[in-house]
Structure formats: structure tokens, C-alpha cells
User: Fold this.
Amino acid sequence: MFEAVIFDWDGTLADTREAIVSSFQQTLKEINIITPDKYIERRMGIGAAETFREILLEAKLPVDESLVKQLVENKSQKQINLKNQIQLFPGAIDLLETLQGKTKIGLASMNSKSVIEAIVNAKGLKKYFQAIVTVEAVKYSKPHPEIFLKCAQQLDTLPSRCVVIEDSLFGVKAAIAAKMSCIAVTTGAYNRNELKQEKPDVIVTNLQQTEVLNFISR
Assistant:
């Protein structure tokens, strides 16, 4: 069995797509920027700051870091306000329950600490995680492996003994770059063929599939 399982949050454990898109769009509307929902969805996983930088560049506006910071804070608060609309994916709690006490469990999300803490606490999930690493703890966004390596370090586990569960191309790339095993799940914005190109160890349609636990337990 792997010594540690590291979960992504958005699109992996929780169906946050609608809340993320809404919080981004509300924030962008305040600065008169219109961006397709799909553009935001396809960037879930790299962090709000990096997404806002890309949107500002697309709009041919200066990327002012003080503005980016303000936009991230506004977006985070709006997403927290939507926390009651966020649902965990089927099988998420059952999988966490099954793994608890058998392996170390970490959470590595490029979302803000305030957002993750608010939602994880609201869902009563904090007890499952021995380490929670968010965007504030890293210098580089996924697909850089930094966030997974920091999570493994906090879990006191070698990368080779960790398996990452991810839904995004950025996350799969980051896990592989960290030299960790990876289970990709198609509950996010990316389909099986897109994920397959990044060569995760396993691709599943949901966390309830027996392949998830079988791979972790091997």
C-alpha cells in the first residue's frame, strides 16, 4: 500500500466548478472584463492569481500584482459565500473513511487557504488530512511539482511512496514531475483522452471505482 495519498480538491474531491466560475465572473464583472466560462474552467488547477494574470494579458491590460492580489481576495470571498452550494463527489467520503488509519492523507490545492479551510471545515473533512497545502505555501503553480513535494514533506513521506489523485492536466503533470504515482479522475474539465496524453497510472470516471482503492492498496 502507498504510504501516502495526496488529493487535489477542486474537481477531484468536490464539485466546485460552478462556484469557481461564478466567483471569477462576479469579480471580473467589477473590473468590466468579460471572459468565457470555458476559459476559466480549463485553468482550474493553476491557481486564481495565475488565472487572473492570464485574463488581464488577454484583455491587453497591465498585470499589476497589487490588482491581482485584490482580485484573488475578492474571488476567494465570493467562493466562500457559495460554500453551501458545493457538493462532494460520490464516493469521496467513503474513500477518505476507508483510507483513514491505513495511510497518510494529504490535500494539495492551488486554491486559497481561506477557501479550502472554510469549505473543508463546513464539510467536516479536516479530520481526514494530516497535511493541507494551499497556494500560499508555494512559489510555483501546477504543473510545477512544488505543491505535491511540500505536501509529501509535511507527511514525512518519500515522493515514490505517494500517489496523487487529480482531475486536471496541470495536476497530473505536477504529480509525474514530482515522481509520484497518479490516479486521474474525469470529474473535472478534462476528458479521458486529454488525461491519457499525460500518462497517469490509472484513469477512472469517479472515486467509487474499485480501481482507485485497488491501485492505492497494491
Notes: The longest strand covers residues 104-108. Strands lie at 4-7, 14-15, 87-88, 104-108, 131-133, 162-166, 181-185, 202-204.
